[in-house]
Amino acid sequence: MSEVGTGHRTGENRKLEAGSPGTCTSENCSSCQAATDGTCPLEHGRAQDDNAHSDKAKSAIEKLPQGQFNNVRHVVAVMSGKGGVGKSSVTALLATAFARQGYSTGVLDADITGPSIPKMFGIKKHADSFEFGLLPVQSETLKIPVMSINLLLPHEDDPVIWRGPIIANVVKQFWTDVIWGDLDFLFVDLPPGTGDAPLTVMQSLPLDGIVIVSSPQDLAVMVVKKAIKMARILKTHVLGLVENMSHVVCPHCGCKHEVFGASKGQAVVEATDIPLLATLPLDPKLSELCDEGRIEDYTPEGFDGIVDFIVKIVDHMEKLKAKEAEAQVQ
Question: Domain limits at 285?
Fold first, then answer.
């Protein structure tokens, strides 16, 4: 059962009050009720930041420009901190959910040493290149452009044995040198952890925000909190949390079994003050479709609500940034 915006629309577990002056900024606006109901007056001051070094982290590296043939309006990264929680499948499901609602979407696979996005979409072709850059490969059903290191290797099981700086440069090239064209949303699948690739994406790409993916285990939750703290240190907006593999539904009696322990999603959002976007089950059908390269055929319950929520937040943030830019000019 989806829990889109749990504790957000009602104002529960929120530290900020709706539309309160002096609190709403482009970094924290999803904590404000006015972000979703359209009542924000866009009159705000910047909240004080406890981490003085975060401003330096934000300004130390300039955001990379888009390629001359690209017009990507919004960039959303998907991060877990820990591997094995279904981050790549959530990335693919987000891209397909947005595409089904009419948004032009793409997927940048920034997991250079462990790419799985092409397999999920059933993409076997290699990416073509020409003098102006690399061409992503489109998925079969929804025509979602995908770029992954596996689309450049001779064989999909060839290992990538590179050090961090090379990986970081490849991630940058997937943004600057790939002909993404005209996209409403580009989803970036980050590798686990808080290392070179996530750092490169947060510092170099013009992110609108990140979606955090977790699972119910205490160990996963502990590591995921590291990812949330990293995002805040780097002044990257956290759009919300998806708890994956929360339970499994018995195919015979319909009972829910929490095979990885009781759900931790609500506890995490209360501790970190971010919205709970969805709670997803451990579904053998999803695993089967991923193995068959048919993830576009899977429709998770509640993802339409996530689409609406993220669209409202990024549009709201865009207005905030425009207002801030106008104030700086004056």
Answer: 29-329
